[in-house]
Design brief:
Layout (H helix, E strand, L loop, with lengths): L1 E6 L2 E7 H10 L8 E3 L4 H21 L20 H18 L3 E3 L2
Antiparallel strand pairs: 1-2, 1-4, 3-4
Helix pairs in contact: 2-3
Length: 108
């Protein structure tokens, strides 16, 4: 199922339910049928999501040696998409909403 986040400060952001649940979990929210991230919740949410992205990038950098692209005797692996690529549209929305003191809603 797709979840669409809406905010007056930015274009809509649509994502799969499992990603929405994961990202909301990072910022301390639950994915219900309807919800809101109020403007006063945005600053801590941005901080938490930025920290999670930084941790993911650091861990991925430490494990980059595990992906052997075409080395002799090794199967090539596709490098999985990281949290940064998945979270940036949502993070951009959080930042825009914070700048304009707007709420973000879903399911409405």
């Amino acid at each position: 199922m797709l979840i669409t986040f809406k905010c007056h400060a930015s274009p809509d952001v649509t994502m799969l339910e499992n990603l929405a649940q994961y990202l909301l979990g990072i910022i301390g929210k639950r994915l219900d049928k309807q919800g809101v991230i109020t403007h006063d919740q945005l600053e801590p949410a941005i901080t938490k999501l930025e920290a999670a992205i930084a941790t993911d990038k650091r861990e991925r950098a430490e494990h980059d040696g595990h992906f052997h692209e075409g080395e002799d005797g090794r199967e090539p692996h596709e490098i999985p998409v990281g949290l940064a690529q998945r979270a940036y549209p949502f993070l951009d929305m959080l930042r825009a909403a914070h700048k304009e003191q707007s709420d973000i809603v879903w399911g409405i």
